[in-house]
User: Fold these one by one.
Assistant:
Number 1:
Amino acid sequence: MNWAMAREVGALDYILRRVLWRLHRLRGRPVAFPLPDGAKVALPLESPFAADIYCTQGYVDWGSEQLLVQYLQTLPKGVCIDVGANMGYYSCILSLHAAEVIAFEPDPRNHAALSAQNIPNLRLIAKAVSDAIGAASFDVSGTSAVGHLHPGAASTAQIDVEMTTLDAWWRSQRNAPRVTAVKMDIEGHEIAALRGANELVEANQPVLLIEYGMGDGLPNTVEELDAWLGHHRYEMFAMIRRPAPLWRFRTVLEKVHASDLPSLDFKMLFLVPLSDDFFTAQALSGFCFETIRNHD
């Protein structure tokens, strides 16, 4: 029982959806789940992450994904990059709002699920993203949702993968549309991927939606993120979870600083060029998870 998720979606709704998910698994029938923005995602029955998508009804990242969609709807379609594509949840979301989706996913356990999404404008690159190019060890001792580079001493299963940088990919492109958005979720190694994306960021000024776990020996740090933001003239927003009445959460969009992160209950961060006022306007208007869920 995921009590935090139950507080997020409501205890009764959560329990009912968990029961329905178990029934889907017992029947062995793949689930084509409609997301709030109209996309559909094929949910692998063996995936814990797919279960979370089902139980939150497509709000697994607290509404960050829907806010990203609203932002992309204000722009001409460009290239969107999904770093750590996993089973293709974000690739499905981005596909309706992009000329092309570039999905980086080194874990072969996820490739069948990605293919099952049948995204016509998706290009899969089976490489890990970091700040260097070459071969690397990749931890596969956990589920396919949490594989990552540079296994620690506790790792019980590893594979060799190719590693690249977003800058190397960007330099290989000719006459490509603008990169409008980059999503990163690579289990605490996002700062290395950001270091390897300096040219792409300077040339395209994309919005980045990233997970940013810290601690336990992970390379992500407050100091490096703060330095990256300053160097690229970016600011940062997050959907932050606050306590609410009746054992619930209220999740609101706020502008934050890197030094704030250790004290905040957040999941994903928006890194935004200072010249782009979309997220500032959304934060000032009181944008929150409950607003988009009730609207849908």
Number 2:
Amino acid sequence: MRGVGKTTVGHLVAKNFKSSFDDLDALSLHFLSASSVRDVFQTQGEQTWREAETAALAKYFQSASRQQNPSQDSRIHAPPILAVGAGAPANLSSLRLLQDARKTGWRIVLMTSPIDVLVKRLSIDLGDRAALTEHPLAEELAQLARERAVFYSTLADAEVDASSDPAIVCAAIAALAFN
């Protein structure tokens, strides 16, 4: 979900593993030659964004598979880390790419936080996040959480509570990496 800390924690996990880190939002913006997710949503629409996410995700997995096979012994090869946008798994094309990645050894960690924690974080810094409904933030997040729950749960290899300090969340994810 938005505000759960995917990018913040992703950077920390990558640093911990001495691995590469990418953010699907940044890759999608690059694909569109755009500078703002919010601008893409406002000028080109959500469908354009979802198509860019899918294209960027496909390109990322193709590139990563040429560099290293994530199913190789992770004690020797640090896995690349990718923060996937919260809406990507709800797009069928992106969902299939993520499912295929799991079949080749990629691990998907679902980071969760209660809605009130997300609202607090996003109230401090909404960043470049686009509103997806006309509802107040708490209602929007609750609605999206309900709609996306099935996609998240079918993809996740593990779930981590991301309500606490990012360093603690990073440690929890790192502990999962070698299980």
